[in-house]
Amino acid sequence: MYLKGEYSGEDRGQLENFNLSHSDSNPRLSDNIISALGGLIAISLISIIAVALGFPMVLGPIAASCLLVCVVRDGPFSQPRNILGGHILSTAAALVIWDVFGKSHITIGITLAVVVFLMVISNMVHPPAAASAVVVINTEAGWGFLPCIAVTAVLIIMFFFLYFNVFKSKRYPKRWL
Questions:
Q1: Do you find a cis peptide bond into 173, omega within 30 degrees of 0?
Q2: Are 42 and 175 contacting, i.e. CB atoms less than 8 angstroms apart?
Q3: Rounded to the nearest 10 degrees, how much is the dihedral formed by the CA atoms of 99, 102, 104, 108?
Q4: Domain extents for the chain?
Q5: Mind listing the pLDDT tens digit for each residue in 21-46?
Q6: What is the C-alpha separation between 30 and 94, in angstroms, rounded?
Q7: Chain mean pLDDT for the chain
Q8: What are phi and psi of 87, to 5 degrees?
Q9: 69-92 burial by CB neighbour count: b if 16+ within 10 A, else e?
Q10: Which of 70, 81, 106, 112 could hold 35 in an S-S bridge, CB 3.0 to 4.6 Å?
């Protein structure tokens, strides 16, 4: 599903450009290495913080966010508004649902439906944020998970802003809001 025509042909081409070929003659190999190295550094630093905060379960959704920024940094789902807004919105909604209904299979389903609806109407779709919501319900993480997901989402945005803008051919983000 594409929102408001945001996903241009250029954005779709980003996934096709991410090719980890074993051939040294591939001009995109250096771009792939730069992206992979950025993901390695980002998730390594973020994992230290997440574990120190007591929420290592945040790493699954946050690693997926890192992957999106590394592979399709110009895509709409990889922009700061979508990353931060999607994770905060989904996590907060999941925590409210968990407080009211507790943990169950149906609660996980209701949570996913609610966060999909909220992300679409707010125009902050970020697929890994749906995973954050499911993690909240499944692990019964509690309200301490919300500041952890917010901090780690901000760290992703800040890290990749600094990292990618060092390279002349790479820019992040495409837009802030």
A1: yes
A2: no
A3: 0
A4: 28-164
A5: 444 445 588 888 999 999 999 999 99
A6: 40
A7: 87
A8: -65, -45
A9: bbbbbbbbbbbbbbbbbbbbbbbb
A10: 70
